[in-house]
Amino acid sequence: MEWFVVISGCSGGGKSTLLAELGRRGHPIVEEPGRRIVKQELREGGTALPWKDERAFSHRAIAMALDDRAAATALNGWVFFDRSLVDAAAFLQHVTHEPVLTSLAQSHRYHHTVFLTPPWPEIYVNDPERRHDMEAAEAEYSRLLEAYPMLGYKVSILPRVSVAERADMIERALADESHCSGPMEGQ
């Protein structure tokens, strides 16, 4: 969907903080599937965790990303996603080496520009839902930096600036694009 905007990139790169700022500005946001799954699994004693059962975690993330997309069709304006189906499919492909990314991600499109947060070691922290180290986060970022363009998305790497500046940049880029192409379908 042209008005579904993905913010992805490196774990610990400021995505969730940026989404919170966009939400504060009145935009609908969709929280990251992975964090929601981990919280639920930890609360319920489940094993579909990236450090216990990567395959089960990946399948749950794909299902949740598809559900999120379906639910978001009822929202108006730009809808910002903290990660996307592409992230989940790229992780599953990394884990299983099965070519699932192209077929799954091509049939469920997002806005053609994806905003990526690069590795930012100075703000990276572990927490109960993020147990991997910076090296694993950087490897994930590299996979996404390859996956999105391979699927035909334009990647815009966000600079390491304040959250307000990042949100301003995204809003400006989308506004400029809307002015150039006229009203967006579905708006």
What's a concise summary of this model?
Helices cover 51% and strands 11% of the residues. By secondary structure, the chain is an alpha/beta fold.
Could you please describe the fold and organization of this structure?
The protein is built from seven helices and five strands, in the order βαβααβααβαβα. The chain is α/β, with parallel strands linked by helices. The protein has a single domain, classed as 3-Layer(aba) Sandwich (Rossmann fold). The chain has a five-stranded parallel β-sheet with strand order 2-3-1-4-5, with helices on both faces. Helix 6 links the parallel strand 4 and strand 5. Helix 3 runs antiparallel to helix 4 and helix 4 crosses helix 6. The termini are close together.
Which short descriptors sum up this protein?
single chain, 187 residues, Rossmann fold, five-stranded parallel β-sheet, 7 helices
The CATH superfamily appears as P-loop containing nucleotide triphosphate hydrolases
- Number of helical segments with 4 or more residues: 7
Mean pLDDT: 86
Q: CATH architecture, please? A: 3-Layer(aba) Sandwich
Structural class computed from helices and strand pairing: alpha/beta
What would CATH call the class? Answer: Alpha Beta
The largest β sheet comes out as: 5 strands, parallel
Morphology: globular
Protein name: AAA family ATPase
Domain NadR/Ttd14 AAA: 5-166
Organism: Microvirga terrestris
Pfam families: AAA_28
